[in-house]
Amino acid sequence: MKIKIEKTSFPSKTKSLTVTLFSVITALLTAAAIFQFYGVNPLSAYEKILYGAFGTPYAWSETIVKTIPLLLCSIGLGVAFKAVIWNIGAEGQLLIGAITATCVALNFPNLPSISLLPLMFISGFIGGAVWGLIPGFLKAEFEADEIITTLMLNYIAENLLKYLVYGPWKGSEEWGFPYTNKFSVSAQLPRIPNTRIHYPTLLIGLILTVLLYILMTKTKLGYEIRVVGESREASKYAGINFKKIILIVMIISGGLAGLAGVGEVAGIHHRLKVGISPGYGYTAIIIAWLGKLNPLGILIASVLFGGLMVGGDMIQVSLGLPFSVINMFNGLILFFVVSGEFLMRYKIKIKR
Amino acid sequence: MRRRNEFKEMNENIYSEVTVEMKGITKTFTGVVANYKVDFKAEAGKIHAVLGENGAGKTTLMNILYGIYQPDEGEIFVKGRRVKLKSPRDAINLGIGMVHQHFMLIPPHSVAENIVLGLKGSSFFYPAEKIKKKLLEISSKYGLEINPDAKVWQLSVGEQQRVEILKTLFRGSDILILDEPTSVLTPPETKNLFKTLKKMADEGKTIIFITHKLEEVMNVSDEVTVLREGKVVFTSETSKTNKKELAKEMVGREILFNSELGNGKFVKDRVSLEVEKISVLNDKGLLALKNVSFTVSEGEILGVAGVAGNGQKELVEAITGLRKVLKGKIKILGKDLTNKSPREIHGIGVSHIPEERVKTGIVPNLSVMENVVLRDYYHPPFSNGFFLNWKFIRAYTQNLVDQYRILTPNLNTPVKLLSGGNIQRIILAREISRHPKLIIASHPTYGLDIAATEHIHKLLREQKGKGAAVLLVSEDLDEIMSLSDRVIVLFRGEIIGEFKASEAKIEEIGLMMAGVKG
Q1: Distances in Å between the alpha carbon of B245 and those of B242, B311, B321, B453?
Q2: pLDDT per residue as tens digits for the range A101-157
Q3: Cβ atoms B181, B160 nearer than 8 A
Q4: Is the pTM of this model over 0.80?
Q5: Which of A15, A211, A214, A237 to mutate against chain B (most B CBs within 10 Å)?
Q6: What are phi and psi of A215, to 5 degrees?
Q7: Cα separations (Å) of B244 from B51, B116, B249?
Q8: From A2, which residue of chain B is nearest by alpha-carbon distance?
Q9: Chain A residue nearest residue B343, CA to CA
Q10: Rounded distance, CA B77 to CA A28, Å?
């Protein structure tokens, strides 16, 4: 028996979809083996995850809560990845967005909601965008590898946040916990009653999904982003200023991650503290790929991963599994999706 | 000594023996028939030309022989044995070597590293160092000069091809396939290559070369097979046929040769492009052009002859705004456009047909529509400044596709799926449809078949007739001589000679390209 790899002519849309689906199923099967190893029946584990994520109205509401930041981060990353700018820094951009929004909330607690909340979103967007612009500028001007710079800036953002909540912003009413004071009511996002769904952020996410879809397919800028991503040489020839495109793309993806950060502090925690993001910015990288960088695909993938996070919490409690099982899950899915991309361009023939 | 005798014996045994036989080869790609019941034979000690238009299936057939594709039907015999070639490795093991038209080199690596890559029995430590001596021996034996330490990205197209040829020679292949090997060579280099090929054939090797140049078939081959639309339409000993017959078989109709068409007239006093003492650096940071000055007038075609890597690429990039000019001035239509952006230069009416059409001229993964507007998408009526006007773009593209006979399944097809000739037609359609005042054409017919070449020459002549100035950079001297009004020769970044095309001799220009001043 011999295994050989052959280049295929070109993947069709249906094939591309089938391959992605197959990749996810393979990831689930592999994870099942690991559950088995832990002595947990994989079927019941998946049932619990599914139930925990989508089985009850409460489960659904929690899934949507997780979907909001994932969606905002991943549609932004989708734009960056289209331009072949490997922004790995959504996590840091999210945290900076949370920090700048907190700064506004703590300094203007008495402003009415109608002006304070928009102000927080704007400052969050700007914060995330600036955090994205730093590596963007370094790449455009000095060709610094953005994978490294965006990743490193995540740690800087994380430690900046720690410094703030342990130091200058440490809340006077928080019994020494590393929290800021609770936001004034006008700095808290409204929620759908009896849930934690801060619907303004959800709406912003959905609207931006549609807007980005239009941006990428119908506009001049979207065309320029795609040309830059496909061929740097051709973009120069076309007269596209690709330095400008790098900066714009980093503003969009950083800013959107920043908005996700605003949602977390203003909608969920109502304060800044350590651990406001369980790695949303990293998971968003996987979502962007799973969604094939297509806004609709990303929306679906965001809900799935939101559910996976909630369902993961569930099995952690009910089956006594470590939470890192979910990280392993995410890792498996990325691994298989990337392998699937490979299988789409090449076919493997097995001959006897 | 014993080895040599053995070789001689073997040599005599296989001489005039069929080493490659392909029977009834059929290959389809998602519905497109590339080869249909093709029979092909090549003998040891002979040079076999495979002639045909782009898309005729010559490269596919050879890729099957090299194990890159597997035929849907048919049998392959190599050296008398029926074989299944499952990959190039199988082909290499059988002594088959191939020099592709699109080079398969790794740009950041050195010449020696590229050659040692995948080489059987190469040393684990410093493999590239260990082969240098042998590499230099082979390269001097066959007159293929190369610096083993140079990085491939720094080499010109012509030099890269030398590396590809050396790669197969290095592996000691006795069946050698060359895909359009002379496209980037100068006449003296081509002569040398042919000498090399003849030498190899005399040693008992089987040489198969794919080409669309009739001249070469007549000059160097012993046998010729003509493919058209995937089928073999003609096979003959070369000595028993002629150019006219081959051209007819290949295209399926009579062809007018360039020499049968005259050169038009031009207005001499209206200068369109004025290059004044420019100096330009290359990618390595060395001076690629030194104080170069020339002018091109309205309705004039100025040919730039020279071996690849003598400053042509840098000259074209400097004029079109893709490369910084260190010193000197470039005036277009009387305006100083030195170091202006490509968009500004394009906007004033300068079209650019780039040297590397797939890398620079198009975006392979984007559609025909998206590529047609690559240079103009940003202004009305293609865009209102924010949104693109897809409806207009679709109609505009359809119009160009019809007018320039671009063969594409539909307007949404990614251009990477089209043939080289059709890709070049898209670029020409885009660049010429805007009624340019100045056309910078860099290797416009490189690697294209007769019909596409004829079409492109016709388009350039038409533009000249309409008063456009044309700067034609090419390594195909026949092309330069038949299209240009004047010719300048670039050597090591300087203009070494200037002729009126009607008074120039090809031999003289050939010598100048090699640096011999007239």
Answers
A1: 6, 39, 45, 18
A2: 999 999 999 999 999 999 999 999 999 999 999 999 999 999 999 999 999 999 999
A3: no
A4: no
A5: A237
A6: -55, -45
A7: 13, 43, 9
A8: B86
A9: A239
A10: 47
